[in-house]
Each structure stands twice: as C-alpha cells, then as structure tokens.
Design brief:
alpha/beta, Ferritin, 18 helices
Length: about 500
C-alpha cells in the first residue's frame, strides 16, 4: 500500500511546474507526510492521556490541525468536499504571509521562536518549516497529494515500520539523484553491519558529524531498541540523551530530522551547522561522545580558512572529518567510519595523509579494516573501506577483511546483509580465513605507515615482464612472420 501511494505521489509531482527533480519529490512529500505523522502522533497521545485519566493539549492550533485544513471529514468519515480546500485557495492558505492570519508555513515557522527549548518537538517543527518551502504550485495537485497521504495510517508498529522503510527508499533515490561533492547514500546493509560491529550500549552517546539523512543514527536506534527489554528510563534515554548529529546542507538537515522523527525519535538532537568550521582546539571533554558512526563526504575540497581549524592541513574533506572524529571521541570510545580506500596508502612521508595515519595509529587502536568492493556505493567510481577503532591506546595489530563477492554490485544488484554475514561473524574473534588476515603494525613502512595490505591468501599473479623483454619477443615474432611471408612468395 505505502509503496504504490508513494509512486502515485511522484507521478502527481512530476506534472507540477514547481517540482523538477527527485530531490523536489522527496522534499515535498516529506513535509506533507510529516504533518500527517504528527497528527497521528498527537492522536496517540490524546488516547494515552485519556487512559491515564489525564488531558493532552495539542501542539497545533485547531485551524492548522490536519483534520481541519488537510482532510476535513463528514459524518460518514469521508472527505467533505464542500469544506476541503483546493485550487488557488489551497495554495494561498499554505503560502500566505500575514501577521494577523498567517498561512500554514508561516504559522509553523513561529514554533522556532516560541518553543521553550531546542530539545522539544515544537522547536524541531519550527526548524523544519523555517528551512522548507512549498514548491507545489497547483492547488489541485496538492489536494491529490494530501488525499493520498491522508489514506496512510501510522498508528501500529507494523504501519510505522513499513512507512519508515519506504521513506528510506525515497531518501536513497534522493541521494542518488543529487550527488555532488562526494555525497552518496550509504547502503543500509552496510550501516547495519557497522552498528553491529561497534555494538553501542544504552547509555552511550552516539554521534555523526556528517549526519545527512541520519541513516546511522536511525539504525543505531533500531539496534538499541531490540538490544534488551527496555525500562521507562531506557526509553527516555534513547529519546533525549543518545543520538547527536550535525549537518551543513539545509535539505539534508531537514530530511535527517524528519527521518528520525518518522522512525520514532521525537526530538532529534541534530544541529544545522558546518562541522568543519569548528576549531578542534575548542572541543572539550563535555563535547565528546562514546560512539562515532559516520560516512563523511569523500572527494570534496575545503577552503584554506576551514583547514586552519585542524592541526593536519589538507583540502580533502574526509581527512578533516576523520581528525574531527578522533578528537571528539571519548577515551575508550568506539568508531566505525567509511572512507576512501586511498586513505590507506596515499602520501609520502610527512604528507597530510601519512601524518593522519600516524595520528590514528598512535592515539587509537585501529583493530579492524573492512575492504569493500567497487559498486558498494551506487554510481560512485571509488572504492571504500570502513575503519573500526577504539580511542585511547595505540594500534599493535590490524585485522583486515576483504569482501570478495561472486558478482558485480550495482543499482539492480546492491549490497545485502548476507554479503556481510561472514565478516560480522569472523570479526568477533578476528579469525584468519580466505578473506581475512592480521598484520602487525611493525611490519608497515614506519616512515609512511602505508596501511595497504595485500591478502596473503590470494594467489600470486605472474610477474610482469620487463619492457626490454617484450620488445625482444616482438622483434623475434616480426622476423618469424617476415620469413613465413617470403616462403609464401617463393611458392607463388
């Protein structure tokens, strides 16, 4: 049901003059979906309050409640077409800017200044609608979208799970449509695997400084929800004091907040800021986290003023993020970071990459490196690795796992959890296998700390011949061919 409705909405938005790409489809679907979800959430709170003998005061004023502006119903429970807005009137209600009678977006924006604190859902509502804009130009198209969204129900666990899963699929499409600056959608099977290996605990603070659509935080939440029988205190901890993120880009920031809310985290601790603009020397113990999970943008380039915030100067965005993650991780804390595989070996002695590798190995225990095949990130022409490390003690040995698959990965053949099952199992004991091996740090070149390690279980390829030998063979073959041609001529 959900899947077909999302497809129908995309078809409607495709016809609208204000929506030109998959990015617009996701953005516009998101704000409508969010308001419907918020309405269902408030209905649940009203029901729970009644059962407890309490009352619940709605966040949203009556005029701006879903049941009044979006889906007014008659006594038969069906849309009352005599009351429901459509056409120009509908667009005017949504977009209107008027102090005396604010439109929908203007009203919702006001929550940012009227909310008691930043860790309330009221504040998040205000942030979302301060950043978003209604791009749907036709009130008739908007009415069709509203009607489809209204048919969705988010009351049961199963409904919420299906909806959040499909919303993730839409985010995936958005990520693949809007790639720039090295930003790619992180496959959910890979995120789940990273979370399993890092194995956060309830009470840990979990951070992603390049949060994007909040995939890592959402999966960590799902992991922790099922890790044990939750107490009321555990639920409170997960809701308010566990998940933290930062995001630079407006749309990604909004999508990340909504994604977390739609997955059940009502007040996400996500900040709209440029993480790399923060000077590393300003990070204090109170600012640090127990767990860092992230896939920072790779391939991006940062300006000189941003580089000044870091002791190791480099224009490579991912390398700056890695410095940030090492700094912001608590002693004894654990991290799982996706990064380009070139980080393992790029740079001569004294270069930025070599210096960063040295810092990582000397301040953290880089216990595991997962080498991923090409095609893991759809549309990306680069290979990646995942660095797993614990801060506080130097690295002595690194366990490598090379993911070798019997197929090429791509859009129609993506990475799945089964592909990574062997890695997860072997990583528990860091056992050697056909695809895994352990390397002593002392065996690496100590001047560059080049971490590229060839799988010792891979058969040696035939040695390449020297150019001079190849030329000799070519000359010999040319001579032989000439002799054959001459003998044929003699026969004619």
């Amino acid at each position: 049901m959900f899947e077909q409705i999302f497809k129908n909405i995309d078809d409607i938005l495709h016809k609208d003059a204000g929506c030109g790409s998959e990015l617009d489809y996701v953005e516009q679907t998101s704000w409508v979906l969010f308001l419907k979800y918020l309405d269902d959430l408030e209905k649940d709170k009203v029901s729970k309050a009644k059962l407890a003998g309490d009352t619940y005061e709605s966040i949203i004023a009556p005029e701006y409640q879903w049941s009044n502006w979006a889906a007014p119903k008659g006594k038969d429970g069906k849309l009352d077409h005599n009351v429901a807005m459509t056409g120009d009137d509908f667009i005017e209600f949504v977009n209107r800017v008027d102090k005396e009678k604010p439109g929908l977006f203007q009203y919702l924006k006001q929550f940012k200044t009227s909310a008691e604190s930043a860790d309330t859902i009221e504040y998040k509502i205000g942030e979302i609608f301060s950043e978003l804009k209604n791009r749907i130009q036709s009130g008739y198209n908007l009415r069709e979208v509203i009607n489809l969204i209204d048919s969705l129900q988010f009351r049961t666990h199963e409904e919420k799970h299906e909806m959040s899963h499909l919303y993730e699929s839409k985010i995936k499409n958005m990520g693949n449509a809007g790639r720039n600056g090295g930003e790619y959608y992180t496959p959910r099977p890979l995120i789940k695997t990273i979370v399993k290996v890092v194995a956060p605990k309830i009470g840990d603070t979990i951070y992603d400084g390049a949060v994007g659509s909040a995939g890592f935080l959402v999966e960590a939440f799902e992991y922790l929800k099922t890790s044990k029988e939750l107490t009321t205190e555990d639920v409170e901890t997960l809701q308010k004091n566990t998940f933290y993120g930062k995001e630079k880009k407006s749309l990604a920031y909004i999508i990340g907040i909504m994604n977390m809310i739609l997955h059940g985290i009502e007040t996400p601790n996500i900040i709209h800021t440029n993480t790399l603009a923060e000077n590393l020397t300003d990070i204090q113990e109170k600012d640090r986290y127990d767990v860092v999970l992230a896939n920072p943008p790779f391939g991006g380039k940062e300006r000189a003023e941003v580089q000044q915030n870091f002791p190791i100067k480099t224009g490579e965005t991912a390398s700056l993020f890695l410095q940030h993650f090492i700094k912001i991780l608590k002693a004894g804390g654990n991290a799982g970071i996706v990064i380009k595989n070139t980080f393992l070996s790029n740079g001569a002695s004294g270069s930025a990459d070599a210096s960063l590798r040295r810092q990582l190995l000397e301040t953290c225990n880089l216990h595991t490196i997962l080498d991923l095949p090409g095609g893991t990130f759809t549309g990306a022409g680069v290979k990646t690795v995942v660095l797993f490390f614990e801060k506080g003690s130097p690295t002595k040995k690194v366990w490598f796992y090379q993911l070798n698959l019997d197929r090429n990965l791509g859009k129609t053949n993506p990475l799945n959890e089964k592909d990574l099952a062997d890695f997860v199992e072997l990583q528990k004991t860091k056992a050697d296998s056909e695809n895994s091996w352990t390397v002593d740090v002392k065996s690496f070149d100590q001047s560059t700390l080049d971490l590229f390690a060839k799988n010792p279980n891979t058969p040696e390829a035939d040695p390449l011949r020297k150019p001079v030998d190849i030329l000799k063979e070519i000359k010999a073959l040319d001579k032989e061919n000439s002799e054959i041609l001459n003998s044929i001529k003699d026969l004619i």
